[in-house]
Specification:
By secondary structure, the protein is α/β, with parallel strands linked by helices. The chain is 40% helix and 16% strand. It is globular. Bound molecules: adenosine-5'-triphosphate.
Length: 815
């Protein structure tokens, strides 16, 4: 999905002078975008300029516009806000101001502008582009510039937009730079509030940012399992038919219902732009008074304010800003006068480019739809994910009033939920969402404890609503997980699963017996590669054990992200954030001690995902992964590169940098982490020192990141939907009617969804821009069972990007 290709990296294009500015409200990740734009521009033979203080710097000119060198953006990845400054420039809104901006750009020879900001900033950029020729003509006509100075520049100004905004309020992109970091800050605060609220049985009303967009509020509500959320796009009540405009009554009813079930906390999240059906603002103090007067709850209001903007960018924002920065430079180089200025966006895991003004107009239409009370349209205008996230929140977080969400009895099922493999952040959140959705719809969610060995020991019990109250934010696996694996059945068409990682093998007959005994009619298996091979094994044994002829869906959960059929697994984002935090500290220590290189070992089994993404997000110099192995040639090349970097710094009398190198744990049996460190140290011949750091199981633990909680919730809801559909399909096409007479269906009459359809054993996954369900049988073609990973690794292209960003290949312009 990543469109970055760098074959042409040494094929220098026509040199461009690219100005980069950050504008509007600051957001974490803007610095990573500036770093990426600057370094890719340099690698592409262009000259990058930083324009300080947003458009104000462009209007002001002089020192506010400065050439960027390689070292000027060093350390930018880890810093929140924007180092080059931002401002809201009134002058730029005037034509006079834009005339000055054009003058300053031409004086510096700048013919392309990368603008990172919100819809206002992008509108301003587009206006400058549309006026460009007129502005240049005026500058020449009034004698401010000569025709010669304007030559080449006056015909066309290249503009590319990057969206930096914590609100995530821009249309045509799923996510904007800074939104996820902001969500991190909100969730940290809410997790802390929940513990005090729990102690005192309090209610908290928390206001979060978002003037016209409820993304932060909604995602925070999903991430922490809030009892109620107020959004601008979807004013309350939820059930308008029943409550009319009296949302207060509905809110109180739902909150008191939760309290009756034993919940000690009530958490209400209010988006700063929240309104009621009549567009009247809903304010935290009013909600507090309602909760106090009607429910007698001890209620506190917390406004998170500017805390939400700041702090070190999370791993995702570093990645997003970096790859989008690359794409911005590529878009500059592709640009022609006929192509409308693009806005670089992200659709699921795919980088997109949309005409900038289309995106701006669509964004503004949301506010218009809200003003016209057309809330359905407002929801539709947001990306489809927003409304599906809203529905997921309602169905999997709020207990339906008087069974409002229950489905017909003959469609209800007993759904087993099992964890398998190593723990990963989000496993509990997925279980909570799936179980609560099941309860709301009338299914029976059965928690299977301790994996397949627990199943055969009959450790199976229905999950209740209150049992999973705080599971959203719990790390590890509350159900218990292990690496016990079903034994492949001889004679079935099962591929060789020589699972060296399995801690034990469980007889399929016993598993079949347990499934029948508990009348389990569908399985949701939350886990990593073991989950995949387990379902492959059970699917292959369906001819022998009809109890396996039930819908089975794997929700990929593993830090290694090695499950075939998905670009991302839950748990990997939590692990990445741990890696990035550790790497930041290590890099600081390395820089403080001067001239030190750290070789950092990360997990991931035979899959290099964590090393590559962690390396990209931490600014690693190089990364070693199992997919490529390690050779002497590589080590020579990398030692040479390190030497040249330190030598360069010494010659330029610059501060010696600390550097980090990532090594995936299984990158090589020969070249261990210790050995790499020793080799680099020796080869450095005193230029630098080297140390190692092994992150180990730190990467598996901790509180799940908001992204993992959201992905877990979304995938879990989709899995239950898929199970319901598969079950309905199975009922229609009973296997027996297809003539599979050798199976004794009578014995399994209670398994209503009885169905031997290979399409009914699947992995749910994000693939490019879609959420898809792929049968495990099909996925075997793209699985390396021995190496325990998929053969399609979208992130492999990022390996080269890491090198490009750490000055491999770089030839200073003009040489
Ligand atoms: P945020 O989402 O943080 O509000 P934004 O980019 O929408 O970011 P704005 O304050 O709307 O923030 O815009 C930032 C700057 O962009 C303004 O101060 C102004 O200089 C410029 N700008 C915005 N709208 C226009 C416009 N219509 N014409 C010219 N310049 C504009």
């Amino acid at each position: 999905p990543i469109t970055y290709t760098s074959e042409t990296i040494n094929n220098l294009p026509v040199s461009k002078k690219i100005g980069v500015l950050t504008s509007g409200g600051d957001s974490s990740g803007m610095n990573a975008a500036v770093r990426s734009v600057a370094r890719i521009a340099l690698q592409r033979g262009c000259v990058p300029f930083a324009i300080h203080e947003g458009y104000e710097g462009l209007v002001e000119g002089g020192d506010m516009i400065r050439k960027l060198g390689w070292g000027d953006v060093r350390g930018f990845l880890t810093i929140g806000g924007t180092v080059i400054g931002t401002a809201r420039s009134a002058r730029f809104r005037t034509r006079e101001g834009r005339l000055m901006a054009a003058y300053n750009m031409i004086k510096n020879g700048i013919d392309a502008l990368v603008v990172c900001g919100g819809d206002g900033s992008l509108t301003g950029a587009n206006l400058l582009r549309s006026e460009w020729k007129g502005l240049c003509d005026e500058l020449v006509d009034t004698g401010k510039l000569t025709t010669l100075e304007c030559e080449h520049l006056r015909e066309h100004l290249t503009i590319v937009g990057l969206v930096g905004s914590i609100d995530n309020d821009m249309s045509c992109t799923d996510i904007t730079i800074g939104a996820v970091t902001s969500l991190h800050r909100i969730c940290e605060a809410l997790d802390s509030l929940t513990s005090t609220a729990q102690s005192h049985q309090r209610a908290f009303v928390v206001e979060v940012m978002g003037r016209h967009c409820g993304w932060l509020a909604l995602m925070a509500a999903i991430s922490v399992g809030a009892d109620w959320v107020f959004l601008p796009e979807r004013p309350p009540p939820i059930d308008a038919a029943r409550y009319g405009e009296n949302w207060e009554e509905e809110m109180c009813e739902r909150l008191s219902q939760n309290r009756k079930l034993g919940c000690r906390v009530s958490l209400v999240i209010i988006c700063e732009g929240a309104i009621d059906q009549n567009l009247k603002a809903i304010k935290p103090d009013y909600v507090k008074s309602v909760l106090e007067s009607r429910l007698g709850l001890d209620t506190r209001v917390t406004t998170l304010g500017h805390i939400q903007r700041g702090g070190a960018p999370c791993a995702y924002d570093r990645y997003l800003a970096t790859v989008q920065g690359v794409e911005a430079v590529e878009a500059v180089l592709r640009s022609t006068p006929d192509i409308p200025a693009p806005m670089i966006g992200m659709n699921e895991n795919k980088i997109t480019a949309t005409p900038l003004m289309d995106a701006v107009q669509k964004t503004q239409e949301v506010a218009k739809a809200i003003a016209e009370k057309d809330f359905k349209r407002a929801m539709d205008l947001r990306d489809p994910e927003f409304s599906s996230a809203y529905n997921a929140y309602i169905e999997s977080h709020l207990l339906g009033l008087e069974n409002e969400n229950q489905i017909p009895e003959d469609q209800r099922m007993r759904i087993g939920i099992i964890h398998t493999g190593a723990p990963a952040g989000g496993m509990n959140a997925a279980t909570r969402a799936a179980a609560r959705l099941c309860l709301n719809r009338g299914h029976v969610p059965l928690g299977i404890k301790n994996g397949f060995s627990g199943l055969v020991r009959s450790e199976v019990a229905p999950i209740s609503w209150q049992q999973v109250i705080n599971w959203q934010s719990l790390g590890g696996s509350e159900l218990g997980t292990n690496r016990d694996h079903p034994t492949p059945v001889a004679g079935t068409n099962v591929p060789d699963i020589s699972d060296a990682y399995a801690t034990g093998f469980i007889d399929c007959g016993l598993i079949a017996y347990a499934l029948q005994k508990h009348n389990i009619q569908a399985l949701l298996i939350i886990g990593g590669f073991e989950a995949f091979t387990s379902v492959v094994t059970l699917n292959a044994a369906r001819q022998i054990y009809p109890a396996f002829c039930i819908p089975m869906v794997i929700l990929p959960a593993t830090v290694s992200n090695n499950v075939p059929g998905t670009d991302v697994s839950i748990g990997s984002d939590t692990a990445l954030n741990t890696i990035v935090e550790c790497a930041d500290r290590i890099k600081l220590s390395a820089t403080a001690s001067q001239k030190r290189v750290f070789v950092v070992e990360v997990q991931g089994g035979n899959c290099g995902y964590l090393a590559v993404m962690g390396g990209l997000a931490s600014g690693a110099t190089t990364v070693y992964i199992p997919e490529e192995g390690i050779s002497l040639d590589m080590l020579q090349r990398d030692a040479k590169h390190l030497n040249s970097r330190y030598l360069e710094e010494e010659i330029d009398a610059k501060k010696n940098e600390g550097r980090i190198i990532f090594r995936a744990e299984a990158a090589s049996n020969t070249y261990t982490t210790q050995m790499l460190s020793a080799i680099f140290k020796d080869e450095g011949k005193g230029l630098f020192d080297s140390r190692t750091a092994v992150l180990g199981h730190l990467q598996q633990g901790g509180i799940p990141s908001p992204l993992d909680r959201i992905r877990a919730t979304r995938m879990a809801v989709n899995c239950i939907d898929w199970i319901q559909t598969a079950f309905a399909e199975a009922k229609e096409n009973r296997l027996i009617s297809k003539g599979a007479s050798k199976l004794d269906t009578a014995a399994f009459a209670n398994i209503v969804g009885y169905n031997n359809n290979p399409e009914h054993a699947v992995v749910v996954g994000v693939r490019g821009s879609d959420l898809v369900f792929t049968p495990v049988e099909k996925l075997l073609d793209e699985t390396d069972l021995e190496k325990r990973r998929g053969t399609k690794a979208w992130w492999m292209g990022l390996m080269r990007l890491i090198k490009v960003l750490s000055k491999y290949y770089y030839e200073p312009a003009g040489q």
